[in-house]
Design goal:
InterPro entries: Fun_TF, Sterol_Uptake_Regulator, Zn2-C6_fun-type_DNA-bd_sf, Zn2Cys6_DnaBD. The protein is mainly alpha-helical. The chain is built from 20 helices and no strands. Helix 9 runs antiparallel to helix 11 and helix 14 runs antiparallel to helix 15.
């Protein structure tokens, strides 16, 4: 008998092959999944476990083609890197304040769930984005993920019920009750899931549910039946949620473009596509006239503002100059420009994500400044209202820029009210 043939065993195959007890060739996507037309969640070793090098740590603002969605560096082991403590804690704090007890609801009313699923697939999914490839993701890909992830299906039904509450005021109480039930049921499982590091088997449905949470928070006025209770503070909370979600998903976002979820990013960050900002395209831009000039003035404002530890009165600062504070604001302003760049490239097809991406750059210090109604933070937020106003056709954004700008005008120090003139002209038309 000849020598026994050596055998190598690997545990790195894709989850789909493991479920079906097939040998995986560990390619991306693997041959078995291609053959059976299955979405492969296998992450190639060179894509999911890159070694941190100077090349992988480039600041996305250093180059016009780098995306703020792409992390500066990646963990050695997929899912082993936790989000930055401050961002993760902000998100977990928000989720912890969500109801732990699931509201009473007739869970046997399957007809109601079918109604909500039908409405989601025929109406709600089309209101969340403009591009058809991204609509396909919301309409088809997310429900498929929901079949095997119960919390995601609850999120889908909650969003559909919220949309129907907006469309049919006479039946609002019924749909708000359904929204509260499904959202609480989904969040209960989601909280438990993200308490541990995300892994290759669950990061895609986590990303999907995270996207729904952002819409849910934006639609707070629909849920409570009135305007934002405290627009500036409510927006700071939304920024914390967006930042926290991005931080938790950061180790996996570089793989997003290799999945069926890719259109959700491609529709928002257009500079990854071979687009050239031609004069004809720029003429279609929805940015108001004079945007570039006023953005230059805003740069000057940040450069010259006397940042101090405290600001009871900007003309009599009682703290020492804090140059690090200015750095946070300059970064926020750079990402603001990044949002305007995407809006320019989009022409008349501005996606909500192009506006919300500004939140990725906002430090905890900046968000605290918003909560303290500090003048420089309110000036930047007022300019951001101009971008928010561009997407107010959406049912879950409707009126937010006006309410926010009104609140800023009430809270800002009188010495800086002149900085609100251009945002008010763009938002209110006067």
């Amino acid at each position: 008998m000849g020598p026994r043939r050596t055998h190598t065993k690997s545990r790195n195959g894709c989850p789909e092959c493991k479920k079906r007890r097939l040998k995986c060739d560990e390619r991306f996507p693997c041959t078995n999944c291609i053959k059976h037309a299955i979405q492969c969640s296998y992450l190639a070793r060179d894509a999911s476990t890159p070694v941190s090098t100077p090349a992988t740590q480039l600041d996305p603002l250093q180059t016009s083609r780098a995306s703020p969605l792409i992390p500066k560096s990646y963990p050695t082991t997929p899912g082993s890197a936790a989000a930055p403590p401050e961002s993760r804690s902000d998100l977990l704090h928000f989720l912890a304040e969500s109801p732990n007890e699931i509201p009473t609801f007739d869970t046997d009313d399957w007809a109601s769930d079918l109604e909500l699923m039908h409405h989601y697939s025929t109406a709600t999914c089309n209101t969340l984005t403009i591009r058809e490839d991204a609509r396909h993701v919301w309409r088809v890909v997310l429900p498929i993920e929901g079949y095997s992830n119960r919390y995601l299906m609850h999120g889908i039904l909650a969003l559909s019920a919220l949309h129907r509450a907006h469309l049919y005021p006479a039946q609002r109480e019924k749909y708000i009750k359904a929204t509260a039930y499904h959202q609480a049921a989904g969040l209960k499982q989601f909280r438990e899931l993200i308490a541990s590091p995300i892994d290759p088997s669950n990061w895609q449905p986590v990303f999907c549910f995270s996207s729904m949470i952002m819409v849910y928070v934006c639609a707070s006025p629909v849920r409570i039946g009135e305007r934002w209770p405290a627009p500036i503070l409510n927006m700071a909370e939304l920024f914390s949620v967006v930042k926290g979600m991005q931080s938790i998903m950061e180790p996996w976002l570089h793989s997003l473009r290799k999945t069926q979820l890719a259109p959700l990013v491609n529709s928002v960050y257009l500079e990854s596509e071979p687009l050239i900002a031609s004069p004809a395209m720029m003429q279609q831009s929805l940015l108001p006239a004079g945007a570039r000039e006023h953005l230059s003035l805003l740069h000057k404002f940040v450069d010259e503002y006397p940042f101090t530890e405290h600001e009871d009165d900007p003309h009599t600062p009682d703290g020492s100059l804090n140059p690090d504070h200015r750095t946070d604001y300059k970064k926020a302003l750079q990402y603001f420009e990044n949002s305007t760049r995407q809006i320019d490239l989009a022409g008349p097809h501005v996606e909500i994500g192009m506006v919300l991406m500004w939140a990725y750059s906002l430090s905890t210090r900046f968000r605290h400044d918003l909560e303290a109604y500090w003048s420089p933070a309110l000036v930047l937020l007022a300019y951001w209202c101009v971008l928010l106003h561009l997407v107010e056709h959406s049912w879950f954004i409707n009126g937010a820029s006006r309410e926010l700008l009104e609140d800023i005008e009430k809270r800002i120090h009188p010495a800086y009210k002149d900085w609100l003139a251009w945002p008010k002209l763009c938002v209110f038309g006067k």
